[in-house]
């Protein structure tokens, strides 16, 4: 893994009215690193991802991408979002467009590529996620796992420097989860820089370089997967991991 620092969050705070979503969050991300963020619902994990690519604005703190402050006044947010791709829980595909056209849209409208070049790039990314043979299918003709893979291809088509995944398998039936996690694992092997919010502990343990445990708007603990799973330093981390392993272990057995 390249040790170059690519993304930095410094003392980030986000509030909605009197409700503090997270406070004083700092995080360094190395180029090629896969970070999995875990923690109970409502602790600010998804909001943090949205802040990192400027879909949501922090109330205080700074974010740097390759040394450039992207929270600075006057920053071109559209340019930033091309460099920090995001995949959401719900696929957010255009139902009236084919898989190919969904992937091409940003290439032609945002990057202003000529259609032949956009077509070639989109087909490359669909092949990358195993869906070249579904290019002409509409979202309604695809399974949930296939739709999410199209959404991943759409984000990859912009050649982002960092990919953010916000619980990308939470809307999927259990039998479809593996195909999406498989694509993400392949991206990790290709040294794509990724931050992933997920409850998939097997994926976290096998693929992550680092796991970050958040609760009540704070980073409680972070470390290598083996350290966090086998030797957590905080009692709250141990309790959370035990509960979620128990919960999802029961679901897998059904």
List the keywords.
254 residues, alpha/beta, 6-stranded mixed sheet, 4-stranded antiparallel sheet, 9 helices, globular, disordered C terminus
Task: Explain what the structure shows.
This protein has 254 residues and is of the alpha/beta class. 40% of the residues lie in helices and 25% in strands. A hairpin with a 2-residue loop joins strand 4 and strand 5. Helix 3 crosses helix 4 (115-128), helix 3 (99-109) runs parallel beside helix 5 and helix 4 (115-128) crosses helix 5 (144-156). The N and C termini lie far apart (38 Å). Residues 250-254 have low confidence and may be disordered.
Compile the SSE list and pairings.
Layout: E1 5-16, E2 19-30, E3 34-38, H1 45-52, E4 60-65, E5 68-69, H2 77-83, E6 84-87, H3 99-109, H4 115-128, H5 144-156, E7 162-166, H6 174-189, E8 193-197, H7 201-207, E9 210-215, E10 218-223, H8 225-230, H9 235-253
Parallel strand pairs: 3-8, 3-9, 6-7, 7-8
Antiparallel strand pairs: 1-2, 1-4, 4-5, 9-10
Helix pairs in contact: 3-4, 3-5, 4-5, 5-6
Order of helices and strands: EEEHEEHEHHHEHEHEEHH
Distance between the amino and carboxyl termini: 38 Å
Low-confidence stretches: 250-254
Residue fraction in strands:
15-25%
Structure, briefly:
This protein has 254 residues and is α/β, with parallel strands linked by helices. It is 40% helix and 25% strand.
């Amino acid at each position: 893994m390249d040790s170059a620092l690519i993304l930095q969050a410094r003392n980030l705070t986000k509030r909605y009215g009197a409700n503090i979503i997270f406070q004083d969050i700092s995080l360094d991300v190395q180029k090629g690193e896969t970070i999995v963020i875990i923690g109970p619902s409502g602790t600010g994990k998804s909001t943090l991802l949205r802040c990192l690519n400027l879909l949501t604005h922090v109330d205080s703190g700074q974010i740097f991408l390759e040394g450039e402050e992207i929270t600075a006044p006057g920053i071109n947010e559209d340019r930033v979002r091309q460099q920090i791709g995001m995949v959401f829980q719900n696929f957010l595909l255009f139902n009236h467009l084919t898989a190919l056209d969904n992937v091409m849209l940003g290439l032609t409208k945002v990057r202003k590529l000529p259609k032949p070049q956009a077509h070639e790039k989109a087909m490359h990314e669909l092949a990358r996620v195993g869906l070249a043979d579904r290019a002409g299918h509409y979202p309604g003709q695809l399974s949930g796992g296939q739709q999410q893979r199209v959404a991943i291809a759409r984000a990859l088509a912009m050649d982002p420097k960092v990919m953010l995944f916000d619980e990308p398998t939470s809307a999927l039936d259990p039998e479809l989860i593996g195909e999406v996690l498989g694509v993400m694992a392949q991206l990790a092997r290709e040294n794509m820089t990724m931050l992933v919010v997920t409850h998939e502990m097997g994926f976290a343990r096998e693929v992550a370089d680092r796991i970050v445990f958040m609760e009540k708007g704070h980073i409680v603990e972070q470390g290598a997967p083996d350290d966090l799973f086998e030797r957590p330093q905080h009692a709250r981390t141990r309790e959370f991991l035990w509960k979620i392993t128990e919960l999802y272990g029961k679901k897998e057995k059904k």
